[in-house]
Amino acid sequence: MAELVTPDLAAGALRFETGDPAIDQRLANGWAGIPDRPDVLLRSAQEALDLAKEAGNEVAEAYAMGAIAFGHYLRSEHETALRTFTDALSRIEPTGDLSGRGTLLGGLAAVHLSLGHFEEALEATLDSLSIARALGDRDREAWMLVGLGNAALDLGDVTRAMESGESGLAQFAELENPAGQARAHGIIGGALMRMGRGGEARAHHESALRLAREGGIRLGEARALHDLGECAQRSGDGRQALRLHREALEIRREVGNRQAQSTSLIHIGLALTSLGRTDEAIETLHRARDLAEAVGAQPRIAQADEALAAAYEQAGKPQRALDHLRQFHARREDLLDAQSRSRLQALQIRAEAEQARQEAEIAHLRSVELAEANRELERTLNDLRRTQSRLLQQEKLASLGRLANGVAHEIQNPLNFVVGFADVNVEYASELRETVEARRGELPPDLALELTDLLGDLAENITRVRENAERASGIVRSLLAHGQPASASRETVDLRDVVARVVDVALAGSGIRPVWVPGEEPVYVDASPQALDRALVNLVDNARRAVAQRLAHDDAFRPFICIALDCVDQHAVLRVMDNGPGVPGEVRDRIFEPFFSTRPTGEGTGLGLPLARQIVAEGHGGEITLEETETGATFTVRLPLAAAPDEPEPSGNGG
Known about the structure:
The chain is an alpha+beta fold. The protein has four domains: 1-135, Serine Threonine Protein Phosphatase 5, Tetratricopeptide repeat; 142-256, Tetratricopeptide repeat domain (Serine Threonine Protein Phosphatase 5, Tetratricopeptide repeat, Alpha Horseshoe), CATH 1.25.40.10; 393-487; 491-640, Histidine kinase-like ATPase, C-terminal domain (Heat Shock Protein 90), CATH 3.30.565. The protein contains 22 helices and seven strands. The protein is elongated and about 120 Å long. The N and C termini lie far apart (75 Å).
């Protein structure tokens, strides 16, 4: 749980000089409010904007709007900041002011990074970096290198993060900029920590702390303490992590950066949880959540809810844990919606500016028909790509159906023999036992008793063989039903019973005690119970394998699997959550492809999730999705609700 971006990083590339002394003075007054008085920045920047409009100074208008956008960013009003920065860019571009464009791109990158738009942040940072190099602006170039490293860290590109951090560090050293050096050390330390090189990471964060203290850079000092606290937490030293995060919190309180305070409180809560001090952890995390709500920092509220879920679970309060887990997922969905809206707004503004430019060019070149033809060609190409993807998926599923039918027919005959001979052997065992009982008087007492017990055990074992052969036969029938899904019989079932049975089967013998929250009321769906069993067993077994994989590499890891059932908008919603290693971003779009598996060769067929999706979607009219989470994985199954089955009428004789 890292801080996406801090004011020292963003402000390092956001200084405005318009050439108008009165406007520049207003903006200088505003910058004096960073970071604890964004209201001062907003008020002064608005005054500068009014002056710029009166003077008809378009460049100054764009700069003032950039300062207003940064004020909104400091108040965690990220959507407003994104919209304002994008609008400011659309105003600066026609003026040809390359320096102003680079400055605004640096601020836009900071907002994108805080919103989790990592690719857009990377693009804006690279554009600003190119402009800084073209203008020979070494200071801004160094800040953009550090920003590039920060974006690369959040994208998981540790190699690029290292390269950018080291380049920024060398440049800041030449410029004798301690604030920049401290931030660059933090980027390098973050990359090293993700590489598992904790000792080297700690050394860089300690260098950042020393530079910040020597330069009196309180924000940089707090950030370095925060990073050192994360190093300590990762190495299992919860006490050291707690001390460092508390020091960072004191500084952040001193400078008044309330969003950063909420981050420190969350990490203090996590450290207390790891130390088993759950009551203190819960109280601290609630304070973090309240503070995040006060400043409107939605990502921090979500992080606090996730941490509270873990703390309540450790405290033995699963219902409270589930409440916060639900709030976390709801908040994540809201954040994703907000991110989508902000992206659409940014794209709309950019599209409008681009459209104006294109219309001027088209009017000049008289090529409206060509532009429309190009757009139609692009739409056609996209349709063809989507059609090709669907056809490929259908062919894979058809191949899977043919394979399932062939294998099932080959297995069914031997299974029939097993079942048949098991029945015969049960009868033989029963007859032998009757014979022993009939002639017990002719046998020594001990021998008669032993034979009776052995024959009883034999009959019981043969019965188990028959039951498991019948179960295997059922699986074969289910494979055959995969090739012909329409033939599956359906009935109205209480999904709680189905899931409870699946959890028992999938986690039997694993030593994992899941959190199973079935709800209080029946959840009826129309289903083929055996097929639905197979789909849900695959999901729960995936969760079991995920936590087992992480446990194999971390003895201190505590496996957590939560299965929660709810009803939302006429649908049964089942979530299977785990705290395993999660699904890498680069394979998220492929996990439902037939024959694709992330497990080592020989350990996975790549059929479990595709078959589960086919059963749920084609056989039951539902859907399975993988939600985005910061840790672990959450699969969500949605099925249409069914009416409760009619109560059977009492039977009896009239008279």
